[in-house]
């Protein structure tokens, strides 16, 4: 890394694992796009002691650094969605050899993912965040419903239920509270490292 590259810590967002606030450096660079020279942003993120990740951005020159840092980190949500589709929804269990079967499997995976996203959205709209509970657990906001939580809720209402609705609700609430406790613990550890006594 060139010594004149100046890094500045930018608070990107709060996560369940604590605050995402890494050092970022941004420089204007020239690239070639479709045979033409173009000016773009090179966004560099320092993720560890000597670990760096890079991204090119065609954001406007006057785009704030915070916005460019956020855009650099938003890929995380796409990667999480792909991982969830593979591990929790069954995209990775495909074994057919014909294209039409692959299309059907992909369509079912997309429909399942859409259903889960809609369920999460409706849950968030129906059950507002309890600010008193968030303060009690010492977190900025309570965790959102996960795919595993949706699975537990479905097990309570499917024709052959494995859980009663009360048991599923209890499991989901327990899971969300445990995740909030983990977030609070990570935030306290980050604050100790960042602001030593």
Topology:
Blueprint: E1 8-15, E2 18-33, E3 36-46, E4 52-57, H1 65-73, H2 75-87, H3 99-126, H4 131-136, H5 147-157, H6 165-194
Antiparallel strand pairs: 1-2, 2-3, 3-4
Helix pairs in contact: 5-6
What does this 3D model show about the protein?
- The chain is of the alpha+beta class.
- Strands 1-2-3-4 form a 4-stranded antiparallel β-sheet.
- Strand 1 and strand 2 form a beta hairpin.
- Helix 5 runs antiparallel to helix 6.
- The longest helix is centred in the C-terminal third of the chain and has 30 residues.
- It is flat, with a radius of gyration of 22 Å.
State the shape: flat
Give the N-terminus to C-terminus distance in angstroms: 32 Å
Poorly predicted sequence stretches spanning 5 or more consecutive residues: none
Major sheet size, sense and barrel closure = 4 strands, antiparallel
- Strand content is 15-25%
Strand order of the largest sheet: 1-2-3-4
The tally of beta strands, per DSSP, is: 4
Helix content: 40-55%
Structural class estimated from helices and strands:
alpha+beta
Instruction: Report the order of strands and helices.
Output: EEEEHHHHHH
Rounded mean pLDDT is: 85
Radius of gyration: 22 Å
Number of helices: 6
């Amino acid at each position: 890394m060139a010594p004149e590259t100046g890094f500045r810590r930018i608070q990107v967002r709060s996560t369940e694992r604590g605050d995402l606030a890494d050092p970022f450096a941004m420089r204007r660079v020239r690239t070639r796009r479709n045979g033409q020279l173009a000016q773009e942003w090179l966004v560099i993120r320092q993720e560890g002691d000597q670990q760096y990740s890079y991204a090119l951005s065609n954001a406007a020159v006057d785009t704030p650094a915070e916005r460019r840092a956020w855009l650099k980190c938003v890929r995380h949500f796409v990667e999480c969605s792909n991982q969830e589709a593979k591990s929790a929804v069954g995209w990775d269990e495909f074994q057919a050899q014909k294209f039409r079967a692959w299309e059907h499997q992909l369509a079912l995976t997309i429909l399942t993912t859409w259903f889960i996203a809609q369920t999460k959205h409706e849950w968030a709209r129906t059950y507002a965040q309890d600010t008193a509970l968030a303060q009690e657990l010492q977190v900025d906001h309570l965790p959102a419903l996960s795919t595993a939580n949706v699975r537990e809720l479905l097990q309570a209402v499917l024709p052959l239920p494995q859980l009663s609705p009360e048991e599923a609700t209890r499991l989901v609430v327990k899971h969300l509270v445990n995740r909030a406790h983990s977030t609070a613990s990570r935030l306290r550890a980050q604050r100790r490292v960042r602001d030593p006594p």
